[in-house]
Amino acid sequence: MKADVKAFFDEATFTITYVVKDPTSKAAAIIDSVLDFDYASGRTDTHSADEVISYVKKQGLDIKWVLETHVHADHLSAAPYIQERVGGKIGIGEKITVVQETFGKVFNEGTEFQRDGSQFDRLFNEGDTFEVGALKGRVLHTPGHTPACLTYVIEDAAFVGDTLFMPDFGTARCDFPGGSAENLYKSIQKILSLPDETRVFVGHDYKAPGRDTYAWETTVGEQKALNVHVGAGKPIEEFVRMRTERDRKLAMPRLIIPSLQVNMRAGQMPPPEDDGKSYLKVPVNGL
Description:
Elements: E1 4-10, E2 15-21, E3 27-31, E4 36-38, E5 43-45, H1 47-59, E6 62-67, H2 79-86, E7 89-93, H3 96-106, E8 122-124, E9 129-132, E10 135-141, E11 150-154, E12 157-161, H4 181-192, E13 199-202, E14 217-219, H5 220-226, H6 236-248, H7 256-263
Parallel strand pairs: 3-6, 6-7, 7-8, 12-13
Antiparallel strand pairs: 1-2, 2-3, 4-5, 9-10, 10-11, 11-12, 13-14
Helix pairs in contact: 1-2, 4-6
């Protein structure tokens, strides 16, 4: 069976949110939603999520899942906002606990911050399965960018998050705490072992040099042949050397400080303080 996929591109964060629908029913899942955030003012906005919600309601879709491929460092998740309005269980990889432990320390969250993944409705392990109506989904644990990264394979479509980008742009960075270029290479090989015709939907696109338009859909076959970082059978040693050198030159994502604090809480803001307001911390020299 072929999943119906509708993409929503957020140019502010170069993120693609996907609505994945069962063609035989109204059942659907939402993958990697975006909560708009203006860092200068500290204000959130929901226009990106509202666009997705409007589509869901107009199509009369029955949302079964609101899925995260990982704890994003470049945008805030709108998962709880979407769940409140259209339903669905919020899911992420079970290694979220490793990310929570790491960044719970970075942001000095104290014992009141639960590091057991209980903020999410479902924690997925390698090989777990789930359903979106008649669509069958399965989970690949694809760490490297972060320890908790997942790829959701829903019938003929693989949603790879930040593990792979379009073939002309390559692969994700591995220099965040818990990241590993070696693990990323192995995870990519797991994805590339899927059938060549498998559709691959990436989590971001930045328009590679020479390309005028944004793109987010490719195939396993195209990635194997053409990916500039891992295609044509590049060996792990060459990849790790390239990835390590490249990552040293990259700046931190613009929204990493708010994103991590919110996304490790399944998209919730930190608990309000005694004045009723939520605050985000900036760990000086902490990242």
